[in-house]
Amino acid sequence: MSGAQREKHEVILDSAFEIFGQKGFYETKISDITEHAGIAKGTMYLYFKSKEELFIAVTKRDWEKFLRDLQFRIKQADGLMPKLQQVAEHHLEYYYERKSHGKLFFHAPNNDPELMRLMHGFLTRYMAAVKEVLEEAGMPDPDFYAKAFIGMLDRLKMDILFEGEFTREELQQRVEQTVRLFMRGSEAELS
Amino acid sequence: MSGAQREKHEVILDSAFEIFGQKGFYETKISDITEHAGIAKGTMYLYFKSKEELFIAVTKRDWEKFLRDLQFRIKQADGLMPKLQQVAEHHLEYYYERKSHGKLFFHAPNNDPELMRLMHGFLTRYMAAVKEVLEEAGMPDPDFYAKAFIGMLDRLKMDILFEGEFTREELQQRVEQTVRLFMRGSEAELS
Amino acid sequence: MSGAQREKHEVILDSAFEIFGQKGFYETKISDITEHAGIAKGTMYLYFKSKEELFIAVTKRDWEKFLRDLQFRIKQADGLMPKLQQVAEHHLEYYYERKSHGKLFFHAPNNDPELMRLMHGFLTRYMAAVKEVLEEAGMPDPDFYAKAFIGMLDRLKMDILFEGEFTREELQQRVEQTVRLFMRGSEAELS
Amino acid sequence: MSGAQREKHEVILDSAFEIFGQKGFYETKISDITEHAGIAKGTMYLYFKSKEELFIAVTKRDWEKFLRDLQFRIKQADGLMPKLQQVAEHHLEYYYERKSHGKLFFHAPNNDPELMRLMHGFLTRYMAAVKEVLEEAGMPDPDFYAKAFIGMLDRLKMDILFEGEFTREELQQRVEQTVRLFMRGSEAELS
DNA sequence: AATGAATGAGGCTTCATTCAT
DNA sequence: GATGAATGAAGCCTCATTCAT
């Protein structure tokens, strides 16, 4: 693939990311994407076999970056708590930056086995990365704890995606609260 | 609405719940639903204005029941931990019973403002119910804690929906783990 | 299928016969057919699964009638020569009546195995019917002679299909010439 | 046109003959042909104005050769029967060599007046050549007899094109049978 | 001359919705 | 109320052709 082609490949992916993110898979027309990219409808089919495949490519690229950045952040930090803080920050910032792409996460094509496999693979790799952090710290049942931690973060993403007025400061506060809750619990009196 | 009518109304909702749950909104045809219900396609339009409205009605009925049952369970239990246990159990059992309806939760129609409002309202009511439990126990920042708790549960639902071999015993174990984590944290050495 | 439906089924077949016959499979649009039939485009798909299937149905109906009429004519006639005359007349009249449907015979969809099987079956049945006539008369190698006879007729159909000014009288003359040639040869001096 | 150009012109025609022959006009893509020829898609348009024109050129080249070879064979032979034998042999061998190119003869582009004129011209020239042979032998109504003779041959080609196991020996046998039938008739008892 | 990326018109098919019975 | 045949808008995708390099 030549330089120019690679570029167009990226242009299409960028455009698809944008439009799929705003409208979701089913409500997006190929022509929406190509018009936004400033190319002809047929051109998309030179780079991707179908609408489904384009969606998969968009998802893949986004997730790969997510995992790559996550690994980098985890490596940078030292100690359990700083590492968890990095995970939390990364998770929430990821959605923060994609505030206007909420549909990407909720409206994927159904019944597409390749996409299903892909998604499952990414979730597994994400969990494995967190689990490793917990294992290193000698935590028991790291599988369960990794899921719970990610779960908390994932619920909080909803506020970010759907509340317009979320600030970076609030985001930082959530990160700290989440890590603290995860480490020490809600500190409620047992009753 | 006469008795017979009410019944047909329910029959359609049952059928729609079934099919939407299996295929998601976009991949479901009206004819799938009406055939499964044993009625003619046109009949559906006597009871619901459109496919979207039917989906909304299905969602509404399911959520209302979810919240009603939740309230009942919370009222039955006494004390913070038993109440949280009820919440956790209810959340996970709900998905456990809907194992084969995963698509219902992931493939709603896009860009339908009414559905968006509805979903937001249900999530808010769910959170409010949990928040109330935490407030009663004098927990600070109950808003955040409620979200985190629900988040943990919601992540765990994924295992239930997508892992075929999940048993009720494992479910119970998750409930207890989650509540303990929430109350006391992961008890990791601070590092 | 109700009476009205059967009728529409026939209306579509008639229209398809007309248009396919004039333009051939590939140059015919579904909308050509449905407009000519005075129905909506989608209606065709209530009666036939695809353009290919419609073409096959048209072909089938036409050939079945051809073979049915052939059998009837053969049965009516008595003796080898009268029977052969009936065959020749039937063959040429068939094309005479379809003067304006030449494309039907030349532009079927490629690579459609079902159509291929169908066509082969019809040709075989046609040949078998002629062969039977020859066998009854005690002719040796009836297989070869049946093919040769049909071949002569089939070549003559070209004149009918593509020469505008062909009359019924000429047709009758061809019938007689063909049968005579077939029976007695060209009577050329052997050289 | 330089030597190299002439060569590429031929390469394209060869490739087109191959692919059109296998798939027919409509199911053949320009890219099928150019890929098979090892050239770029655009290159074809340097030598031929359109897909239709390429098809016409392929047909023309093939028919011209057919008629040239026919004339040569007829000239070589002496006497009516030997000449007819040459015609029959040529006709059947032509298709025998094109066993795998059946689609060429059945799926030409519709509605192309130039092709129609061309085909008609070739058929006329073919018939004229045979007619001349018959006229020389003093046969009456040579027009009709020429058509009938070609018709018999043309029907027999079907066996060659569609029966996989046809041998050269069988071909020779058919040639002789056909000529004998044509000369002396089926020798059936008149009934 | 040769290339092959880009174009965009056009066709098949689907399916939510309507409405005459 | 119930039916289901009919509608037709809409979208995915193909592929002959062009043209800048």
What do you see in this structure?
The structure is a homotetramer of 191-residue chains. Chain A is mainly alpha-helical and 191 residues long. Chain A has a single domain, classed as Tetracycline Repressor, domain 2. Chain A is 76% helix and 0% strand. Chain A contains nine helices and no strands. Chain A has helices at 3-23, 30-37, 41-47, 51-76, 80-97, 103-106, 113-136, 142-162, 168-184. In chain A, helix 1 (3-23) packs across helix 4, helix 4 (51-76) runs parallel beside helix 7 (113-136) and helix 5 packs antiparallel against helix 7. The longest helix of chain A is centred in the first third of the chain and has 26 residues, at 51-76. The mean pLDDT of chain A is 88. Chains A and B meet through helix 7, helix 8 and helix 9 of A and helix 7, helix 8 and helix 9 of B. Chain A binds a DNA duplex (21 and 21 nucleotides) through residues 4-5, 8, 29-31, 39-43, 45-46, 50-51.
What oligomeric state do the depicted chains represent? homotetramer
Question: In whole angstroms, how far apart are the ends of chain A?
Answer: 65 Å
Number of folding domains of chain A? 1
Helix- and strand-based class of chain A? mainly alpha
Strand proportion of chain A, as a percent range, falls in under 5%
Number of strands of chain A: 0
Q: Outline of chain A, from the CA principal axes?
A: elongated
Largest interface: A-B, 48 and 48 residues
CATH architecture label of chain A: Orthogonal Bundle
User: What's the tally of helices of chain A?
Assistant: 9
